[in-house]
Amino acid sequence: MTPGPLRDPSRGPAPVVPPRRETRVPPEGSDRAETGPGPGRGPLAGRTVLVPRSTERAAGLATTLRAAGARVLVSPAIERAAVADTTPVDDAVADLGRGTFAWVVVTSVNAIDELAASAARRGTTPADLARGARWAAVGPATRRALEAVGVAVDLEPEENSARGLVAAFRALAGEHGASPADPDSSAGPGAAARVLVPQGDLAARTMADGLRGLGFEPCVVTVYRTVAHDLSADVVAAWRAGEVDAVVLTSGSVAREIARQLGPRDDVAAVAIGEPTARAARTVGLRLDAVAQRPTDDALAAALGTVLSATAPVRVGPGSDPTGSADPNDGAEPIDSAAPTDGGDPS
């Protein structure tokens, strides 16, 4: 399927619906949408949840939701695409192998895949390259992906976002009384420690600007692109028919694509994986009911369970107005100047 553009200016801005009260939930430990047979019993029986991710990335959450009785629609709204020129990332990986970086800061699983591919082109592995630098991961999924390729993580923030990672570096710098670079870094006395920051093309400047403000020298390299992926016909039909009760938003890019491809509905609850994704959802006018406490499948499932158990199913037919009769500008929030992190929130 040919990916569409992430933004279509001819459509104009997405309609804005009145904001709903948001809740925080405590954590708990193909072209056709994949639905899978749900047991039909459990707290989410009779509910339909859209998980707009690839089958592989959605597997854990989908399994949990189906075990709770939900019907789950799985269809990706975005996908990763290669950069046109891999020379910058290959050069950065070569520098990493020479020990010129004190830190590598990773804010998405996609970036790890591209670093591993670049290492393979050099006939080496991320584990071999990791020995000369310390590594920071934005969240648990990113940490696990690094550990899976043999890289030990030295820093993971409590708040799993670029802002949280900058704060973790600030705290670490305070503990050391200076920039927390390795003593044997190739940077000479008084020189800023170099930090490799591999990101997607839609990443905000939050990470790089924050590191620079702490005295580091960030080297930002675009290692992949994020492009739209058309949602399956099954998903589009279910959304238009008012069959979807909730949607899971796992990045700002996903939120924007849901608004662009499907349009906001006032009768579809939405749960965001983190605050950057929540800000993006508000900006494009999506209803937002909860923000997961942590960017994990368990936390997302807990948030969905809380939101859906508190509301009865609302079915709005294809001939009715899914956004209600309220003034679309009533209560609209201003655009948050803080853009989402790399691809939104890590997951």
Automatic annotation (TrEMBL):
Pfam families hit by this protein: HEM4
Top-level division of the source organism's lineage: Bacteria
Residues passing through the membrane, by range: none
GO molecular function: uroporphyrinogen-III synthase activity
Residue span of region Disordered: 1-47, 311-347
Any one GO biological process: uroporphyrinogen III biosynthetic process
Biased amino acid composition, Basic and acidic residues: 19-34
Domain Tetrapyrrole biosynthesis uroporphyrinogen III synthase: 61-301
Annotated PANTHER family: BLR5956 PROTEIN
Protein name: Uroporphyrinogen-III synthase
The organism of origin for this protein: Cellulosimicrobium arenosum
